[in-house]
Design brief:
Layout: H1 2-21, H2 26-35, H3 40-52, H4 58-71, H5 76-85, H6 90-98, H7 103-114, H8 118-126, H9 131-139
Length: about 140
């Protein structure tokens, strides 16, 4: 009986271990468990348990990750790409982006710090900022 119970808790233990180092999305945990050979039903049960006890919350994860990326100077396109790549649903991505300061404000801070011009515009483009941020960098040249 104890051996059977250990097998049943193994997927949950694997998922909890994965969450010890950092927060992850449900899709990331699911992929990690699938990679360890855990069956679909067992994965679903482990994910449901983690969500129920508050260890796994894709909306919270999306907001936190978006805030981290924005603090590092990322624009909305890069943040959206990162969150989507982590398997987060579009509605979670949209909520996370809406919770941030507007992209134009974030771009303005970077332009203020780096100065305007083509070099800053290229920098902003590489960080996933949209046309408004790029226009601001070029307009601030001089």
């Amino acid at each position: 009986m104890a051996e059977h119970e250990a097998v049943e808790t193994a997927p949950l233990d694997l998922a909890i271990r994965a969450l010890r180092a950092r927060d992850r999305s449900a899709a990331e945990i699911d992929a990690r468990l699938a990679g360890r050979g855990v069956g679909e039903a067992e994965r679903a049960e482990a994910l449901e348990t983690l969500a129920r006890i508050g260890y796994l919350d894709d909306e919270r994860f999306a907001r936190t990750r978006a805030e981290q990326l924005a603090a590092r100077g990322s624009g909305n396109a890069l943040i959206r790409h990162d969150l989507a790549g982590r398997g987060l649903a579009g509605e979670h991505v949209d909520v996370a982006l809406a919770s941030l300061a507007p992209e134009a404000e974030r771009a303005a801070k970077i332009v203020q710090r780096r100065g305007g011009g083509p070099k800053t515009a290229r920098y902003l483009a590489s960080k996933g900022f949209g046309e408004d941020g790029l226009a601001m960098a070029v307009a601030d040249e001089g």
